[in-house]
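Lab notebook, bench 4. The sequencing result for the construct came back, and we need a structural model before the next group meeting so we can plan mutations. Quick request posted to the team channel:

Model the 3D structure of this chain.
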Amino acid sequence: MQKIIVGLISDTHGLVRPDISRAFAGVELILHAGDVGGTAVLEALRKIAPIEAVYGNVDDPHDPALKRERMVTAGGVTIHVSHGHELGRPNPTLMLSRYQGDVLVFGHTHRAAVHQAGQRLCVNPGAAGPRRFNLQPSVARLTIIDGSAHVDIVMLA
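Done. Here's the predicted structure in token form:
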């Protein structure tokens, strides 16, 4: 049995909450879906696990650490990551119609969402940064077992 756990995070806006390390205990990779808010965030997350990140609408698109989108393969599952702002008002249906991949990860809305469409999964881990829009900060844990993906939203303090 092959098992990989990937941490999904978005919209940190420069803040790395202390309980993110607890939420990401045991992850082998972190995927950041944009609105990072600076290199200090990436450095802090890199202490937990290797990180791949995309830029959001508040990030510098010329930052070499950030890409417009990422395609990552983990445990036989293809994961597409983008912030979502490039689609205007992103939602799972729009993401699934626009991008390829077994799992699609986006942010921007600050609202955690998990949407299953057949064998495909679309995830917004919510916003892990400063509390906005009266929404509880959150991240997600993507567990891949023998090529099958499952996600859990983890609420932060």
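Residues 3-155 form a domain with the Purple Acid Phosphatase; chain A, domain 2 fold (CATH 3.60.21.10).
Will bring this to the meeting.
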